Amino acid sequence: MGGKDLATDSPVGKRSGRILVVEDQPDIRELIATILRAEGHEIAFASDGEMGIQMAQRDPPDVILLDLMMPKLHGYQVLQALRTHPATQRCAVVVVSAKAYASDKRKAMEMGASAYLQKPFDAASLRALVRQQLNKAVLTFWGARGSIASPGPTTLRFGGNTPCVSLSYQGAQVILDAGTGIRALGVALQAAAAGKPLEVNLLITHTHWDHIQGFPFFTPAFVPGNRVNIFGPHSAEKPLEKVLRGQMDPEYFPVALGDMAATITVRDVGMEPFQVGPFTVRAAYMNHPGMTLGYRLEAPGLTVAYATDTEPFRTLLPTVTSGADVAQFGRSQDQELVELVRGADVYIADAQYSPAEYAKKTGWGHTNYVDAVAIAIEADVKRLVLFSHDPMHSDDEVDRKLAHCRELVAASGKQIEVTAAAEATPLEVFVP
User: Fold this and answer.
1) Does residue 142 share a domain with residue 58?
2) Pairing mode, strands 293-299 and 302-307
3) Cα atoms in the Cβ-side hemisphere of radius 13 Å centred on 171
4) Within this chain, do residues 175 and 58 fall inside the same structural domain, yes or no?
5) Residue 410 belongs to a domain
6) Which tens digits make up the pLDDT trace of 21-35?
7) Would you state the pLDDT for residue 294?
8) Under 8 Å between Cβ of 240 and 214
9) Half-sphere exposure of 46 (CA within 13 A, CB side)
10) Residue 91 maps to which CATH number?
11) Residue 11 lies in a domain
12) Are the CB atoms for 256 and 228 separated by under 8 Å?
């Protein structure tokens, strides 16, 4: 079948996966199967939209190839069902259709499709696109609000849950922080597991309530056979496990940490690198009250930096001391953060305050978004994600923050993509 190649057929980065083909035409199904089975992929078929939904929700695949014009349910209806069900909301869905209209392609992407492949296609294009979907990393923001949850009509688009981010890559699941957003993540993870044992790794930056308060509601921790590995800093007086047990004391919560049915391990970490799934994790202490870590996660071809909560030394120190060398000393202290995030494919940054707000809240342990941009520029990151939105900021205020940050980056001449973390909006990173 004719078409333009998406990439070469290089074997580099190949990973076999489970592919569900939702397609009513037998000849197309067989062609896809012939092409992809030669790559080592496991193929399953659904001949109509209803069957496709049922199969995907019962046993979620790695990639779904979805036709649009099918019996029983149109592909758009299937896509909507997949994106609203916890088991399939994060599955890669590639629309494969003969419809060439730009409006159809745009609609599919707006509804949550991962990619659009037009029929007729050639073998190389299909192989490359499936390989791309299998090798990508996906960051999903389940909570992006700092300090305290702030649900309501003014925070619908960016969300009101406190910090929780999931990173999916090469079959591994890493979770960053356990704010209130982890509740919905737990539901999604358990549904996607489809009855199989689940292993997740949770990295906690620090134990202020907004970063741990969702853990008692994390569904996978209650399921026998699951394993939950927790990493985070030892506080000045207590190990991490004791802090987690403390918030689940009967005085505060009806279920104790020891009552959770999953196998739960808690490991105190510091600045020594450690391994989590495919990632080598390096940590650095952040300038925030108490013992707070930022993390750099590295795998071949991929680096994600997560640094929230923190406050630049160069802006804080001149307010508490004086002298000609104070600002220079502050800049030297900030280099540790710059090096932690340097060259990252994605830098998830504390950007809680506006400059005017920060002037009134200096010393509270957070960053104003102008300084977040300055760090990203100095560190030469590829993508900056504004995070830890202030609980008092509406969606419109976050929009204004985002627009100003993009203007600052454009003025610098750097090629940095800037986005604002929004709940349930995945961010895809294609790994070469």
Assistant:
1) no
2) antiparallel
3) 6
4) no
5) yes
6) 999 999 999 999 999
7) 97
8) no
9) 28
10) 3.40.50.2300
11) no
12) no
Q: Which of 110, 134, 158 is the last residue of a domain?
A: 134
Average pLDDT along the chain = 92
Query: Is 4 within a domain?
Result: no
Same domain, 166 and 115: no
pLDDT in tens, 358-410: 999 999 999 999 999 999 999 999 999 999 999 999 999 999 999 999 999 99
What domain range is 110 assigned to?
A: 18-134
Q: What percent of the chain has pLDDT over 70?
A: 95
Q: Quick one: 286 and 344 in the same domain?
A: yes
Domain assignment of residue 2, yes or no: no
The C-alpha angle 246, 181, 196, rounded to 5 degrees, equals 90
What distances in angstroms separate CA 61 from CA 21, 72, 134, 198, 425, one per listed residue? Answer: 10, 22, 11, 15, 20
Beta strands, E only, 120-189: 137-143, 164-169, 172-176
Which CATH number is 414's domain given?
A: 3.60.15.10
* DSSP single-letter state for residue 378: H
DSSP 180: T
Kindly tell me the sign of the dihedral angle through the C-alpha atoms of 406, 397, 331, 375: negative
- Give how many domains the chain has, as a whole number: 2
Select from 130, 45, 142 the least CA-distant residue to 93. 130
Which of 118, 134, 150 is the C-terminal boundary of a domain?
A: 134
Same domain flag for 121 and 144: no
pLDDT at position 137 is 95
| Cα(229)–Cα(44) distance, integer angstroms | 33
Please compute the mean of the pLDDT values over residues 44-55 and round it to a whole number: 97
Q: What is the pLDDT of residue 7?
A: 32
Tokens of 275: 């391994």
As a whole number of angstroms, the distance between CA 221 and CA 309 comes to 26
pLDDT tens for 296-314 read 999 999 999 999 999 998 8
Cβ pair 155, 186 in contact under 8 A: no
Token pair 């062609």: residue = 31
Joined together, the tokens standing for residue 164 give 């929780």
What are the backbone angles phi and psi of residue 234, rounded to the nearest 5°? -75, 135
